[in-house]
Specification:
The protein is of the alpha+beta class and about 600 residues long. It has helices spanning about 135, 205-220, 230-240, 275-285, 290-305, 350-365, 370-390, 405-420, 425-445, 465-470, 480-490, 515-530, 530-545, 570-580; strands at about 20-25, 30-35, 40-45, 50-55, 60-65, 70-80, 85-90, 95-100, 110-120, 125-130, 140-145, 150-155, 160-165, 170, 175-180, 185-195, 270-275, 315, 325, 340, 495, 495-500, 515, 555, 560-565. The protein is about 30% helix and about 20% strand. The strands form 7 sheets. It has an 8-stranded antiparallel beta sheet, covered by helices on one side. The chain has a 4-stranded antiparallel beta sheet with strand order 1-2-3-4. A 4-stranded antiparallel beta sheet has the order 5-10-15-14, with no helix packed on it.
Length: about 600
Amino acid sequence: MAAAGIDQSVIGGTPAVLRDYALLADGHRGALIGPGGDVAWLCAPGWSDPAVFSALLGGAGRYLVAPAADRFVWGGHYEPGSLVWRSRWVTGDGIVESREALAFPGEAGRLVLLRQVRALDRPARVRVVLDPRADFGREPVRDVTRDGERWLARTGGLHLRLHGGGRLRRDRRGFLAGELKVPAGGRHDLMLEIAAGPLDQPGESPGELWRTTGHHWASVVPSLAGPAARDATLAYAVLRGMTRPGGGMVAAATTALPERAMAGRNYDYRYAWIRDQSFAGQAAALVGRYDLLDDAVAFLTARVLADGDGLAPAYTVGGDPVPRERLLDGLPGYPGAGVRTGNWVRGQFQLDAFGEVLMVLAAAQRHDRLDSDGRQAMRVAAEVVERRWSQPDSGIWELPPRQWTHSKLTCVAGLRAVARTATAGPAGRWSALADRILADAAAHGLAADGRWRRAYDDDRVDAALLLPGIRGALPPQDPRTERTHRAVVADLARDGYLYRFRPDRRPLGDAEGAFLLCGFAAALSAWQAGDVVGANRWFERNRAACGPPGLYTEEYDVRQRQLRGNVPQGFVHALMLETAATLGQVDPCR
């Protein structure tokens, strides 16, 4: 059934496979650009606000810049050390490029989407269609006026201004459309502003914003060297673009993209998970750039001091509660799933999140980047662990509460990390608490063969149990770590990829895709065990699980070689970066 207020004639057509989308981001929001030149996804003004371009989920509205030719072949690449994307189309008449970016650094209440059309070798004809529709396509464009080369309009509560659209005309359906003719070697700038309030000020010129954007990306993304430098640098840029300055990093830019078709596992990841901040902060510290570490510490410190043992698993990037999950009627959704917004995780207790907080605060302390509030947050988090470590929790995979072994061991790793940075009194207390939790896990969480098991009442293996060993819950030579590594790989590895666990009797790959986070964890675990060749095999296999733009989702369909779930997945990029630095695939900045 069509949604009320959505014009079916402008609903997005068949979406591309996820591997073909490129991300633009400025810290406050993100856009996905498809191979056909369409902005398939953009929430405004912020990450978790309703989408103004939602063709990815079948919503109305679009912003197309593409060759006017009937036939063309797509390609593209990121400019080094940035999220500036260049779409590239080879037509029968020549080569056309569109340089794409969200002006960086971004503003909280106003975004600027820059698109610069370039005709490389011959004159080019480019088709442009602009039809922003707020609230996931429900709100048509209105109040359209023209002022020379500029168009002004509104949609829902948003104000719009387009520069460089003098050759566009009103279409019968109310949006702007037209054709640009660009001479050989020439270029044409389109600059779309979307704001929560009136756009009364004249604003910067496209040339000025392009210069500022390029300069700022160069200043915040490290220049890494080594065999995996290009991919690791892009991973850092993705983390930077998905992190609000001084705030949280969203888990992904999108909502409701299915992990498995028709399986009901399609969630809203446009929020900041506690665990993800820890992964990103620790990876940034490892490569010697501390802005992302500082942002993670600031976000986690504020949340721990405000909420204590009521710490939620996730928040908005501004620190507010995540909205309750609800189905969004009227949108077809990405094929294979309906549309959901909000997330049910808001009511969970995840014990391992406190261990992750302790680890990233300890990393900041080691680099002399922890202030008095951060040290207080460290004490509060440790006290929560002391009070609640014996309680069931939902764990890293956000399942029904149980005595998850990974959660206990992650707290052990966090307590050991902060004990190494503390004065004698707290250090002794935290070390003793770590020993007590470890003893309980050893008494209840060990299988008969001496490996860690998923939960105190579940003898299966779980790839998450590689992480506590990597993080220092036990010495690298501890036989329990070694046996767990062997058991996880023996039971959950296929074709160089690693699955989380066996949810049922189906073969691996039937119930869900391989987890790229787990694949990179396997590389780190092999490295820790002294298996250099194995570690690099895991790393190379899993870093190849992306499309032309080089972005990762949470899951990878090994059989079909397709990305699954929301895109891009921040904590996968974080662990990819950490693995590259640990294996010497990139040289950290110093």
